[in-house]
Automatic annotation (TrEMBL):
Residues 285-471 form the Mannitol dehydrogenase C-terminal domain. It comes from Paracoccus seriniphilus. InterPro entries: 6-PGluconate_DH-like_C_sf (IPR008927), 6PGD_dom2 (IPR013328), Mannitol_DH (IPR000669), Mannitol_DH/Oxidoreductase (IPR050988), Mannitol_DH_C (IPR013118), Mannitol_DH_N (IPR013131), NAD(P)-bd_dom_sf (IPR036291). It comes from the Bacteria. Signal peptide: none annotated. This is Mannitol 2-dehydrogenase. Keywords: Oxidoreductase. Gene3D superfamilies: N-(1-d-carboxylethyl)-l-norvaline Dehydrogenase, domain 2 (1.10.1040.10), NAD(P)-binding Rossmann-like Domain (3.40.50.720). The keyword Hydrolase does not apply. One of its GO terms (molecular function) is oxidoreductase activity, acting on the CH-OH group of donors, NAD or NADP as acceptor. Residues 28-277 form the Mannitol dehydrogenase N-terminal domain.
Length: 491
């Protein structure tokens, strides 16, 4: 059965579907970067509100700024923007069709259609999932990178921007000039203080071309910080076949784990849906929730994904079942990361670490190490190095964290231990690969990437640990090195 509005009544009875009249939905949100995560997370929360007969004026309009986004637009348009979500619970799989999305802006080089849609006063929230590395910030200082070619282009051509941020600024300028008021900018990416970072990028870019507009944005727009959490693998042939087992032909299904969390700062200048009625948490202390999730879950992902690449372990659950990689994850997270993470209402850092171990071990989640290892230059610096800095400052255990950087350096050399090639997997892969190859004989070359490590490159305890681990990986192999760490052989 081809998925569409016309076929919803024919969906098998065991598949949940929209009970609301989708023709009554009007747009309220533009979401830029419409991939799997958004459809399994933010869109699901809104869909569940609509199931209760609420939020019908908050429909989602998808958007993208890359040429490749048009393929996603065409896939979703052909099925009336419906998505089948498949929950991968070890106790049994289930499916639900979500219908909160009602359109997708045409993908254009100058983003004219996107700007026009965001300038519409009906749009009160513009949300984004553009990856951790997509905000044009320095990975060490977190300062805005005004010298990036994209930012220079958008500053010079504010009416024909190439980035999402330039398009948002142009739309806000049109709204200001027409007296229509601002919208809320809502980052849904895994960044500590993601709302504050989005504000910094927008205001800084606007100031390069229109200081008065920058002041207006800073004064009138809101940028709530948030923490988002749900493991959502990429869609491939297995997922396309899986959705057919439910009797549905869906060109863009999404699989996800049986866990979601969304913690949001309640700062919305133009209103918001009542997401808290379907499980989201509004709080003034997003930071603590962010820190716990980013350091333990996202940091934990980085601990194991690169090791899996080197040892030819394809999936995250396989890494957790590997006797050395799984043990490395558990020891490093519980002894070197969790001790520097504050507890939050409802759970402790150590209990959360145990939960993440269970979630990563879910055999139903076919999440590849390649997906998780992607963009290490953003993820290692954002998810692992903050814990390392805390450990060094306190003189605490940090051998496992230092080892993670040696593993990353070994992975970026570009070959697995079985001799197969690791394909480029980072926006700055050429730089990383060159440094990793040189580090095989001179490990300090890797740390001398100041754009990644900053002052950590000069930290003697970290230097010594990193050098030792990288040399051991190259001389004895990764499994022997992991065994050495687990046995406490750190000198």
């Amino acid at each position: 059965m081809l998925l569409s509005n016309a076929t919803l009544d024919a969906v098998p009875k065991d598949v949940l579907r929209p009970t609301y009249d989708r023709s009554r939905i009007t747009p309220g949100i533009v979401h830029i970067g419409l991939g799997n995560f958004h459809r399994a997370h933010q869109s699901w929360y809104l869909h569940r509100l609509m199931q209760q007969g609420e939020a019908m004026d908050w429909g989602i309009i998808g958007a993208g700024v890359r040429p490749g986004d048009d393929a996603q637009r065409q896939r979703l348009a052909a099925q009336d923007y419906l998505t089948t979500l498949i929950e991968l619970d070890p106790k049994g799989r289930s499916a639900e069709i979500v219908g909160a999305m009602i359109g997708f802006v045409p993908v254009q080089e100058d983003n004219a259609a996107l700007i026009a849609r965001m300038a519409d006063p009906a749009i009160r929230i513009v949300s984004l999932t553009v990856t951790e590395g997509g905000y044009y910030i320095d990975p060490v200082t977190k300062a805005f990178n005004a010298d990036h070619p994209d930012m220079r282009h958008d500053a010079a051509h504010p009416d024909h921007p190439r980035t999402a941020f330039g398009a948002m600024i142009s739309a806000l300028g049109k709204r200001r000039d027409a007296g229509l008021g601002p919208f809320t900018g809502q980052s849904c990416d895994n960044l500590q203080g993601n709302g504050a970072i989005l504000r910094q990028t927008l205001v800084s870019l606007a100031r390069m071309s229109d200081p008065q507009l920058a002041d207006w944005i800073e004064k009138n727009c809101t940028f709530p910080n948030s923490m988002v959490d749900c493991i959502v693998p990429a869609t491939g042939p297995k997922e396309l076949e899986l959705v057919r087992t439910f009797g549905i032909e869906d060109a863009a299904p999404v699989t996800h784990e049986n866990y979601r969390q969304w913690v949001i700062e309640d700062k919305f200048c133009a209103g918001r849906p009542d997401w808290d009625k379907v499980g989201a948490t509004f709080t003034d202390d997003v930071y603590s929730f962010e820190a716990m999730k980013i350091r333990i879950l996202n940091g934990g992902h980085q601990l194991i994904a690169d090791a899996g690449e080197i040892l030819s372990v394809e999936f995250i659950s396989g890494c957790m079942n590997h006797p050395l990689i799984g043990a490395y994850f558990r020891k490093t997270v519980t002894t070197e990361i969790a001790p520097h993470v504050a507890d939050v209402p409802g759970t402790t850092a150590q209990a959360y670490a145990g939960l993440i171990s269970q979630r990563f071990s879910n055999p139903e989640i076919v999440d590849t190490v390649r997906r998780v290892a992607f963009d290490g230059s953003s993820r290692q610096t954002g998810f692992i190095l903050p814990s390392l800095r805390d450990a060094l400052a306190k003189g605490a255990a940090m051998q496992g964290l230092a080892l993670s950087q040696a593993i990353w350096a070994r992975m970026c050399e570009g070959t697995r231990e079985d001799g197969t090639t690791i394909q480029p997997n980072d926006p700055i892969w050429a730089q990383l690969n060159k440094a990793a190859q040189a580090a095989r004989s001179n490990p300090q070359v890797w740390l001398n990437q100041r754009d990644l490590y900053g002052e950590l490159a000069d930290n003697i305890p970290f230097q010594r640990a990193f050098v030792r681990w990288l040399k051991l990986i190259w001389s004895d192999g990764l499994e022997a090195t992991l065994r050495s760490y687990l046995q406490g052989q750190n000198k």
